[in-house]
Amino acid sequence: MPDHSQAPSEPVVTRSFPDSSVGLVTPETLHFDQPLALSCGRMLEQFDLVIETYGELNKSASNAVLICHALSGDHHAAGYHSEDDRKPGWWDSAIGPGKAIDTNQFYVVSLNNLGGCRGSTGPVSINPETGKPWGPDFPVVTVEDWVESHALLADRLGITQWAAIVGGSLGGMQVLEWTIRFPDRVRHAAVIASAPKLSAQNIAFNEVARQAIMSDPQFLEGRYLESETLPASGLGLARMVGHITYLSDDAMKAKFDRDRKVTDFQFDYGAEFQVESYLRYQGESFTKRFDANTYLLMTRALDYYDPASRHNHNLVEALANAKARFLVISFTTDWRFSPERSEEIVNALHTAGKDVSYLKVDAPQGHDAFLMDIPRYTNALSAWMNRVATESKEYTV
Amino acid sequence: MPDHSQAPSEPVVTRSFPDSSVGLVTPETLHFDQPLALSCGRMLEQFDLVIETYGELNKSASNAVLICHALSGDHHAAGYHSEDDRKPGWWDSAIGPGKAIDTNQFYVVSLNNLGGCRGSTGPVSINPETGKPWGPDFPVVTVEDWVESHALLADRLGITQWAAIVGGSLGGMQVLEWTIRFPDRVRHAAVIASAPKLSAQNIAFNEVARQAIMSDPQFLEGRYLESETLPASGLGLARMVGHITYLSDDAMKAKFDRDRKVTDFQFDYGAEFQVESYLRYQGESFTKRFDANTYLLMTRALDYYDPASRHNHNLVEALANAKARFLVISFTTDWRFSPERSEEIVNALHTAGKDVSYLKVDAPQGHDAFLMDIPRYTNALSAWMNRVATESKEYTV
C-alpha cells in the first residue's frame, strides 16, 4: 500500500522556451565617453547605449546584423527578459535560431536609440550637468545622429562592416541613412514599410500627437518627471492617433467592425464600440511604458528625415554612393507608408544603378504588418537573409 | 472755375453681391411647442430650429429643397449675413440663382440641426428647467431624431413633399434616413460623399476627437459654459484630427508638401512645417465658432447611424420602401467616406430596384471635395437638379 502521508515535493519547473527562441536575454549598457556632435549643433559629451545581442560574432566579424527600431521600439527585439516574461521582444517572429534572421548564422545587434526611454541616454536620463532628468533639455536628435551613434557602437563591437542592417518604418530610414553615410560599412540593407521622407499627412498626424502631449497640463513644458507627474492623457491620445494609422481600414473592420461592448446604445460617450475600448486600452497602457518627451523627439526625427534635401532634393543623387545590396518591402494596405513610398526608394535605387529587390506583400494588416509573421513576408526576408549569410561566408574566405 | 471749397460727399457704397449669389439673408428662428420623442427615450418638450430659406415656395409647394448639413455645418448655407461679411454660407458654390441648386427654380430650406450650436436648441441653449445652459444634459440626438424634427419643420412650412433633399457626409445620412422614414415625402434624394454607416476606423477617429475634448481639464464634465471657460485645446485637437481626414494625402501634398515656415530646422516643436501651422490655425479658429458638447454629440450621431441594423443588418431591406429617385456622388480621393462606401448604398438601391444615378468624381481634394466647386461635380448636380425641377413642374400640373 503506497504511503500517502507525505505528498511528493513539487518539481522545480524551469520554463522551456521554444527551440526557435533566443531564450533568456540580458540587455547590456555601453558607455561612450567620446563626444557626439549632433545635427542641431549641440554636443553630447557622453552617452549610454543599451543593446541586446543574439547569436555569436564570428572570428572575421563578418556576420553582424544591426536591427534598427521604429518609433516606439527599443533594444529588446527578441527573446525573454525573465522566466515569467509574458511577451518576447518586438520582432521575435523574425529573429531566432532558424528564423528569418537566423541567430545560428548571424550575430544580431539591437539597440535602443539615443533619445529613447529604455535605458539609452535620453530625456528620462539624468543630465550630468544638473543632476536632474534631461526632460525637454535633451537635444532633438535626428536619424543622421542615430546612425553616427550606431557607427560608434559598431566600432566598439569590432564590427567594421555589417553583413546587413534591417529596419522597418522609422527603422527603415536609419537603414537608408547607413547606406548613404557609411557606404563601405553596410553590405546589405533591408528597408521595410518605410519612406524616403514623411508626407504632409504624415507630419500632420505627428503634429496632432505632439499637440496632444504638449497641451496636457501635466506636461509642464516637459518637466513632468521633476514634478513626479506624467502627461498621461496627452500621451495616450498621441498613441491612439498613431495606432489608427498603424492599422488598415480592413484590419480594423476584421478586428472590430461595429461590434459593441453593450447590447443597447447608452447615449453617452463611454466606450460602447469595441474599437473605442481597444484604443483607450492602447493609449492607457502606452503611458505606462513610454516617455512623452521621447515621443516628441521620435516624431520630430521622422519629420526631419529627408536625405534628398541634402542633394538638391534628388533621391537618386542622395543614394549615388551607396554600395549595399538592397531589399525593399512594402505592404498593400499600409497607408502610413504606402507601397508608393517604398517604390520611390526602389525607383531611385534603380536609377542610381543599385542592386535592389522589391517585394510588395499582399497583406490586410496595414503598417503593423512589418512586425508580423506573414508567410510571404517572412519567407522572402528569410530567403534574402540566407543569401546574405552565403555571401557573408564568401566574404570571410 | 469749379468750387473746391467743399469736397463732394462720398457716395453711399452698397456692396453689390454677384448676380449668382442669393445676397443678404436673414436666419429665422422657429419655435416648436410639440414634444419630440428622441431615440434615447427622452422627450424634448419644446425646441427651436434656426433656418434660412432661399428662393420662393411655389403655390403648390412642389419646389422645396431641403439641405442637410454635415458635422460642423449649420443653417447658413448660402449668401451673406451682412454687407461686410467676408465669407458666404458653406455651400454658396452650389446654391443661388442659376447655380446647381437654382434658387430661381427652387425654394431652398437649410437648418441648423437639433443639438447644434448656431441657434437651434442644443447644448449651448438655456435649459428651461434649470435656467442654465443644457451643456452635457442635452440628450444625445440621432440622425433619426433629426429627420423627425425636419418633418415637423416641413409641416410648419407647408411642405408635404420635398422636391429634393440634398446632403453631404453626415448630411447624406440624413437624406438616406428621410427616404426610409418618410418615403412619401421625398421625390429626389442626393447622397453625397457619404456612407450607410461608419467603419471601425471612422469611429476610431471620432473617439480620438471625443477623448481630446473630454480629457481637457477645461471641459469640466461638459459644464464649461457655466464656469465661463472652454475646452479650447481639446476641441482644437479634435478639429485637427478631423481636418486631416477631410483632406486627401494628395491634397495635402499639393497644398503643403514639406514646405517650411523657417529656412533652417529649429530642433524644437514649434510650427516649422506649413502643414503644422495650418492645422494649428484650423484648430484654434474652430474653437471660436463651435461648441465642444455639440462636437461630441455630432460625432456620436455619426457613430450610431446604421439603418441596416434595424433591418436584419440588410441595407437592401432598410431601403425597400424608399420611393425617391436617388443621386449618389463620391470622390476618388475621399478616404473618410471612400467611393466604396457610396457604392454600398448604390448597390443596395439597385438590388432593391430603386432609381439611382451614381457618379464617382475624379477629384484630388479628398472628403472636402463635396463642398467645392468642381466642374464635373457641379455640372452633374446641376443637370440632376434640372431634371428635379422639370419633374417638379410636371408634378404640379
TrEMBL record, chains A, B:
It is found in: Cytoplasm. It catalyses: L-homoserine + succinyl-CoA = O-succinyl-L-homoserine + CoA. One of its GO terms (biological process) is homoserine metabolic process. GO terms for cellular component: cytoplasm. The record marks 336 as: Important for acyl-CoA specificity. One of its GO terms (molecular function) is homoserine O-acetyltransferase activity. Residues 63-371 form the AB hydrolase-1 domain. SUPFAM superfamilies: alpha/beta-Hydrolases. Substrate binds at residues 239, 368. Keywords: Acyltransferase, Amino-acid biosynthesis, Cytoplasm, Methionine biosynthesis, Transferase. The keyword Hydrolase does not apply. Pathway: Amino-acid biosynthesis; L-methionine biosynthesis via de novo pathway; O-succinyl-L-homoserine from L-homoserine: step 1/1. Its main location: cytoplasm. Its EC number is 2.3.1.46. Pfam families: Abhydrolase_1. The active site is at 169 (nucleophile), 334, 367. Homodimer. NCBIfam families: homoserO_Ac_trn, PRK00175.1. Transfers a succinyl group from succinyl-CoA to L-homoserine, forming succinyl-L-homoserine. Belongs to the AB hydrolase superfamily. MetX family. This is Homoserine O-succinyltransferase. It comes from Parendozoicomonas haliclonae.
